[in-house]
């Protein structure tokens, strides 16, 4: 609220700056001097002052005065023709028009442009307050920047890079995560897990595409540990993306058969395999063949983490709820809706969005 | 909150500028002093608003407010305070804000100078100034907003480009912009005169200090940029004929011409139309420079085509102001009253010649800069027009100009005597020839052009000083009297002499680069590298960690003919946040020359790639520029610039010494 008053006062001051000289017509009209001849008169008196101060030699002063005098004569002749117009009805009308112009143009332009390009919504919810509202987020941010500062001083601390990398992924700073894993590999040496993580984040950075660089990283990981499930999975995905369907099928199959019962990646691999075999096609698979269910699950959990730690807009919460519902994780969707209601408690419009989403997905009946 | 208020102030400034454009212009048409008096007040108000916006952005930088996109992209909380400040204008958006701040500052100064400018001229000038402000405010608000927010705010910024984290670049843009934008005032005065259809010596007198000031700052800005390129880029070069450099050189050349033609107009009421045209062209070239640097068209025409919003906006501004002003010129110029005739051989004639040479040289640079761009647009072929082109075209135009310079300075107004003038310069010719021959004998076997260049430089310095000598000393005069006379010469005379002598110093510095030597080797600890008489011995390489960068410091001992001169450090830095390496050359000044060490790769076994240069007299290049700018400054302090006392025909020996 205070800020609006300040902006209002600023606008008023700007308008006054124009109205003020327009209101001084009496003083000016009383003088009744032509500004041009006035200019030369003042110049002559200035020359006189300079001579007295000794800045100019008397001969110089005389010459300068003579020249200014000649110009004064010429100026008087020039302006005598067009009458000097500070008083009278037309002058009054002009002043009124100018005042109206100032009163309308300045506020309209300022408000229109500020409304179009400014961030007026931040005025009612200043970022400082938003920051206080989500203390967790600040803690995470502070921790990250502490680690970053530490790494800037000790860039060879591979452990640090390895710790910060997953945090970057959660914050959505994928490119930074790639760099962090790269540094971790460089300073801690290559291990199958580390390389697999490094490769995975490279894939994320490419929106799910396994680039040839990433493929090399996975191959290295498999060399170090033939069992590495993550690396083998992505190598299979790479084969799939290259169009080598049979090879991919075989790789998925081998991965499944060598995995222990109930391995967390089992479902993902089975879905993938199914989509290749033409059996039980997973919804949406044809539309986005290069993004696997694993990626979707990861994106959703990334979004969830981010909303949990940093907060977010009602639309983002709604997206999370819908994602859970689409993935068939109804319990999680209900829980997310609950969390969203808590987080957006002070935001009426936001609550409506969440409620509408919950109704649409028929989550409300199941809510305990 | 402050950031938003700053943003709002910028939009208010736009509204006020519109009023400042319409109302005073109308007042001048209707001859209404009340409406005209709106101009100065709005000029002040616009300046207040833009200063506030600039202050708000500066505070955002100093407090590392990462909710502002611009701060995130160009700052880092660990950056030293001075680079947080210089970061404000170390990026596109901020530098445009600085540009417009200086524009508004000059508008405010014009507004305050109500006793030295006739009101109609002032009103029209402020209106033109407001039109420029409107165009650039719209550009900033619509395409380059420095106040864009990011919510939630990132915890850390991306740091300023490391090449810009340097004291030289902290002050280079403000100097350059004061120069560029200063010419906008000359432009505004020229357009105001065209609108009013009246132009005379008073106009010239009012415009000259502005041109002079802008020119002096532009000189400093170019010199600063050149020195920065010299020590920061690590190649030891000081001028690369790069389009960005040319963009600042072109307004400088045109501005130099303008400066001289205004003198003719002020003294002799001649060359009016030409002066107005030059004022328009000079500012047009400043705008062109802004366009070249700010639109991204230089990095590649392709990138311009991909994101054309900014570029085409500035191009629009460019076309509007250049096209509009030239159209106005074509329409009104024939109505201006002509005055002042002069003989071909006279001070005026020499100044016309000066103008022709400068304008042609400027056109050469323009072609050399724009031709590759045009070719790339039309055929997609990328060519680079480098030093050879400019050496073949620019130098032949500049050398005769420099040869004529002392002659013109000595010629009388109206009708001069060429032979008499030449006679007065005999001594100077002789000494310069002697200097050239001495240099040639001394450096026998060296490049042939260098001694000639030195001779030309000496000739320029002596020829300029000659003016002081002939005006204050004749055979038999005691030195004390001569000295007093010299001290009493008008400041503008001293300014001219200094500026011209500065040109001479720069020419000497440039000519001496021909004697520069360099050595290149990979050194292990204790090994030496030789360049001419100088040797560098690698003592040690130590890693060092600072707040926002790490560096390998190589310490060298510098020897001349086996004798130790001292040690210097040369660095290779890595700025962590951007992951960007830079080199910091190690420089030792020996007399007016410099020993310059720049590092290549630091190998794992501790050996270092090293480049060693010895550059004799190289400092004169920039000292010359400083002296030129100093000349401009001295000339500015001349009281007569303001009140316009005509020059005295001769100094009477009995003239009393002025006492304050």
TrEMBL record, chain A:
It is found in: Cell envelope. Residues 147-262 form the Cytochrome c-type biogenesis protein H TPR domain. Keywords: Cytochrome c-type biogenesis, Repeat, TPR repeat. GO terms for biological process: cytochrome complex assembly. Gene3D superfamilies: Tetratricopeptide repeat domain. GO terms for cellular component: cell envelope; plasma membrane. It comes from the Bacteria. The keyword Iron does not apply. The keyword Repeat applies. This is Cytochrome c-type biogenesis protein H TPR domain-containing protein.
Automatic annotation (TrEMBL), chain B:
It is found in: Cell inner membrane. One of its GO terms (biological process) is cytochrome complex assembly. Residues 89-295 form the Cytochrome c assembly protein domain. Residues 315-639 form the Cytochrome c-type biogenesis protein CcmF C-terminal domain. Keywords: Cell inner membrane, Cell membrane, Cytochrome c-type biogenesis, Membrane, Transmembrane, Transmembrane helix. It comes from the Bacteria. InterPro entries: CcmF_C, Cyt_c_assembly, Cyt_c_biogenesis, Cyt_c_biogenesis_CcmF. The keyword Membrane applies. Its main location: membrane. Pfam families: CcmF_C, Cytochrom_C_asm. GO terms for cellular component: plasma membrane. The chain crosses the membrane at residues 6-26, 38-62, 96-113, 125-142, 175-195, 207-229, 249-266, 273-293, 313-331, 352-374, 394-413, 425-442, 448-465, 494-517, 617-636. It is a multi-pass membrane protein. The keyword Cell membrane applies. One of its GO terms (molecular function) is heme binding. Required for the biogenesis of c-type cytochromes. Possible subunit of a heme lyase. Belongs to the CcmF/CycK/Ccl1/NrfE/CcsA family. This is Cytochrome C biogenesis protein CcmF. It comes from Microvirga vignae. The lineage of its organism: Bacteria, Pseudomonadati, Pseudomonadota, Alphaproteobacteria, Hyphomicrobiales.
């Amino acid at each position: 609220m205070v800020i609006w008053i300040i902006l209002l006062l600023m606008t008023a001051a700007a308008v006054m700056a124009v109205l003020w000289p327009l209101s001084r017509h009496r003083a000016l009209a009383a003088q009744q001097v032509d500004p041009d001849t006035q200019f030369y008169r003042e110049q002559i008196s200035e020359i006189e002052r300079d001579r007295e101060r000794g800045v100019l030699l008397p001969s110089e002063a005389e010459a300068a005065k003579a020249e200014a005098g000649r110009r004064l004569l010429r100026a008087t002749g020039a302006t005598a023709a067009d009458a000097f117009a500070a008083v009278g009805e037309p002058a009054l009308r002009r002043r009124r028009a100018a005042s109206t112009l100032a009163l309308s143009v300045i506020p309209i332009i300022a408000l229109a442009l500020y409304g179009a390009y400014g961030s007026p919504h931040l005025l009612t919810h200043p970022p400082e307050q938003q920051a206080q509202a989500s203390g967790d987020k600040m803690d995470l941010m502070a921790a990250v920047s502490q680690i970053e500062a530490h790494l800037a001083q000790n860039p060879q601390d591979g452990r640090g890079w390895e710790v910060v990398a997953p945090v970057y992924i959660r914050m959505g700073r994928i490119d930074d995560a790639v760099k962090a894993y790269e540094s971790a590999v460089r300073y801690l040496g290559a291990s199958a897990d580390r390389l697999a993580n490094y490769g995975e984040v490279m894939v994320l950075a490419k929106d799910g595409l396994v680039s040839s660089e990433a493929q090399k990283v996975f191959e290295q990981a498999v060399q170090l540990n033939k069992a590495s499930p993550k690396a083998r999975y992505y190598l299979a995905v790479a084969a799939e993306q290259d169009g080598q369907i049979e090879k991919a099928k075989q790789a998925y199959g081998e991965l499944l058969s060598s995995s222990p019962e109930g391995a967390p990646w089992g479902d993902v691999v089975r879905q993938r395999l199914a989509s290749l075999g033409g059996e039980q096609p997973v919804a949406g698979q044809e539309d986005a063949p290069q993004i696997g269910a694993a990626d979707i699950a990861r994106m959703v959990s990334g979004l969830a983490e981010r909303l949990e730690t940093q907060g977010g807009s009602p639309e983002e919460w709604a997206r999370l709820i819908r994602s859970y519902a689409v993935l068939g994780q109804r319990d999680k969707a209900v829980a997310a809706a609950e969390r969203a209601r808590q987080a957006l408690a002070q935001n009426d419009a936001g609550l409506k969005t969440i409620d509408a989403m919950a109704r649409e997905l028929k989550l409300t009946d199941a809510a305990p | 909150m402050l950031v938003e208020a700053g943003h709002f102030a910028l939009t208010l400034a736009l509204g006020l500028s519109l009023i400042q454009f319409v109302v005073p212009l109308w007042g001048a048409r209707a001859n209404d002093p009340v409406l005209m008096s709106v101009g100065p007040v709005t000029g002040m108000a616009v300046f207040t608003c833009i200063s506030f916006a600039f202050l708000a952005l500066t505070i955002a930088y100093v407090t590392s407010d990462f909710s502002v996109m611009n701060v995130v992209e160009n700052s880092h909380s660990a950056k030293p305070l001075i680079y947080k400040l210089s970061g404000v204008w170390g990026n596109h958006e901020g530098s445009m804000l600085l540009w417009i701040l200086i524009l508004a500052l000059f508008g405010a100064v014009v507004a305050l100078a109500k006793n030295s400018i006739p009101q109609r001229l002032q009103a029209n000038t402020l209106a033109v100034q407001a039109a420029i402000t409107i165009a650039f405010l719209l550009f900033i608000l619509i395409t380059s907003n420095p106040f864009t927010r990011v919510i939630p705010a990132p915890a850390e910024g991306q740091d300023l480009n490391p090449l810009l984290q340097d004291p030289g670049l902290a002050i280079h843009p403000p100097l350059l912009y004061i120069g560029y934008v200063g010419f906008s005032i000359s432009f505004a005065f020229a357009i105001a005169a065209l609108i009013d259809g009246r132009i005379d010596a008073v106009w010239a007198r009012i415009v000259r200090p502005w041109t002079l000031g802008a020119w002096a700052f532009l000189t400093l800005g170019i010199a600063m940029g050149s020195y920065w390129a010299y020590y920061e880029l690590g190649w030891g070069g000081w001028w690369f004929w790069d389009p960005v450099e040319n963009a600042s050189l072109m307004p400088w050349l045109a501005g130099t011409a303008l400066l001289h033609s205004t003198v003719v107009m002020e003294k002799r009421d001649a060359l009016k139309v030409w002066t107005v045209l030059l004022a328009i062209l000079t500012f047009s070239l400043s705008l062109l420079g802004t366009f070249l640097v700010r639109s991204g068209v230089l990095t590649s025409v392709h990138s311009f085509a991909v994101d054309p919003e900014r570029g085409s906006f500035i191009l629009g501004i460019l076309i509007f102001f250049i096209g509009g002003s030239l159209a106005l010129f074509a329409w009104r110029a024939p109505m201006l009253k002509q005055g002042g005739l002069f003989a071909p051989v006279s001070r005026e004639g020499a100044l016309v010649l000066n103008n022709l040479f400068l304008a042609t040289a400027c056109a050469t640079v323009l072609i050399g800069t724009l031709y590759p761009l045009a070719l790339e647009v039309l055929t997609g072929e990328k060519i680079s027009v480098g030093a050879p082109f400019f050496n073949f075209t620019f130098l032949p135009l500049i050398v005769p100009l420099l040869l004529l310079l002392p002659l013109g300075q000595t010629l009388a107004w109206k009708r001069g005597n060429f032979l008499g003038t030449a006679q007065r310069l005999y001594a100077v010719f002789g000494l310069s020839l002697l200097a050239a021959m001495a240099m040639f004998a001394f450096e026998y076997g060296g490049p042939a052009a260098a001694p000639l260049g030195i001779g030309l430089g000496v000739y320029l310095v002596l020829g300029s000083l000659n003016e002081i000598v002939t005006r204050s000393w004749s055979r038999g005069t005691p030195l004390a009297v001569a000295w007093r006379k010299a001290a009493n010469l008008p400041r503008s005379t001293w300014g001219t002499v200094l500026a011209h002598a500065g040109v001479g110093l720069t020419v000497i510095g440039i000519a001496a680069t021909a004697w520069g030597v360099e050595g290149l080797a990979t050194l292990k600890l204790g090994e030496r590298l030789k360049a001419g008489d100088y040797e560098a011995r690698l003592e040690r390489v130590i890693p060092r960690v600072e707040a926002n960068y790490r560096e390998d410091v190589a310490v060298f001992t510098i020897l001349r003919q086996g004798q130790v001169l001292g040690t210097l450090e040369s660095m290779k830095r890595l700025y962590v946040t951007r992951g960007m390496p830079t080199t910091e050359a190690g420089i030792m000044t020996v007399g007016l020359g410099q020993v310059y060490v720049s590092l290549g790769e630091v190998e794992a076994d501790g050996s270092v790639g090293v480049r060693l240069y010895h550059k004799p007299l190289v400092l004169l290049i920039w000292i010359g520029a400083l002296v030129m700018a100093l000349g401009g400054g001295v000339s500015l302090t001349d009281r007569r610039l303001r009140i316009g006392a005509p020059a005295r025909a001769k100094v009477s020996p009995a003239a009393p010494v002025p006492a304050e």
